[in-house]
Write a structure and sequence with these properties.
CATH superfamily of the largest domain: Metallo-dependent phosphatases
CATH class of the largest domain: Alpha Beta
Structural class: alpha/beta
Strand order of the largest sheet: 3-2-1-9-10
Largest sheet: 5 strands, mixed
Bound molecules: fe (ii) ion
CATH architecture of the largest domain: 4-Layer Sandwich
Number of strands: 10
Order of helices and strands: EHEHEHHHEEHEEEEEHHHHH
Radius of gyration: 19 Å
CATH topology of the largest domain: Purple Acid Phosphatase, chain A, domain 2
Strand content: 15-25%
Helix content: 40-55%
């Protein structure tokens, strides 16, 4: 059995197509999608079209990421303030370009899943952690040891970190397949993995991961960012996403944090998403030279 595991697509349908084509060439039998299908790259409907086509044509498993949770929360709380600005413009743009069908699809899936099939070793997968779509399963997470210790299987797969790596915690293994759409490191090449089932009953996990980093047409994503209007609707966010796509260095979160800190320092308070442009500009020039 070969399982293609893809996560953190973030609306990058061009990278997604490259990964799917590669996985099919490598004879992937099934696909596991571990969330964050949308936001950051434009035209989310193009990504969702591919997702539905995959669902029709192949054996696929889907779970939800924190970005889908943001969309669902917004549907349930329409009074939540999202404006066209660097902080929330990308979310608002994505929300306006999703259909009811997309929202219902997100609502129908869980934030974690279990692969439990006869003749194969059971493992679990999630976007963030098994209990939160936005928890980062990284070594500096203070819950890390107890999460892995409490796991009822030997292998856990999670996304959200955008870092492609595997780590051991005691006898248990945690694998991050990396990000399809806004990949970190490897000069921004698109990342996913194939899990190969291992027949040896003495194998510690029953599965072995093979990581891939694929070049794709980043220039086309940049063109779509331009044509979508995202450089006007979410100026600094779109510029930071472009930088991440072109280099594999993602400063979106540190830049947002710094802009908010600067605003709080100078104005005495800060209210997301209303962060004045001058603080975005200061933070942006701090990170991007
Ligand atoms: Fe995420």
């Amino acid at each position: 059995m070969k399982l293609a595991v893809m996560g953190d697509i973030h609306g990058n349908h061009i990278a997604l197509k490259a990964c799917i084509a590669h996985a099919l060439e490598h004879k992937a039998d099934e696909f596991i999608f571990i969330g964050d299908y949308i936001t950051d790259c434009p035209y989310p409907q193009k990504t969702m079209r591919i997702i539905y086509e995959m669902q029709r044509r192949y054996r696929c498993y889907f779970i939800r990421g924190n970005r889908e949770d943001y969309m669902l929360n917004h549907r349930n709380n329409p009074q939540e303030r999202w404006t066209y600005s660097s902080a929330s413009g990308n979310l608002l743009y994505t929300y306006e370009n999703l259909s009811e069908q997309d929202m219902d699809f997100f609502e129908s899936i869980e934030i974690h899943g279990v692969y439990d099939k006869k003749n194969y070793r059971k493992f679990r997968y999630c976007h963030g952690s098994l209990t939160s779509s936005k928890e980062l399963l990284l070594p500096d997470n203070e819950n890390m040891e107890s999460i892995m210790k409490g796991l009822d299987v030997d292998l856990l797969i999670s996304g959200h970190t955008h870092i492609q790596e595997s780590r051991m915690y005691g006898e248990k293994k945690l694998i991050h397949p990396g990000s399809v759409g806004v990949p970190w490191y490897y000069e921004g090449r698109s990342q996913y993995m194939i899990l190969h089932s291992i027949e040896d009953v003495n194998h510690p996990f029953g599965w072995e991961e093979e990581f891939f980093q694929l070049p794709y047409d980043v220039g086309r994503v940049r063109e779509e960012l331009e044509s979508s209007g995202l450089y006007e609707k979410a100026p600094y966010w779109a510029k930071l996403v472009t930088h991440a796509l072109e280099t594999g260095e993602d400063y979106t979160t540190p830049c947002l944090t710094m802009a908010m800190d600067l605003c709080r320092e100078k104005e005495g308070n800060v209210q997301w998403p209303d962060i004045p442009v001058k603080y975005w500009d200061m933070a942006y020039t701090h990170f991007i030279h």
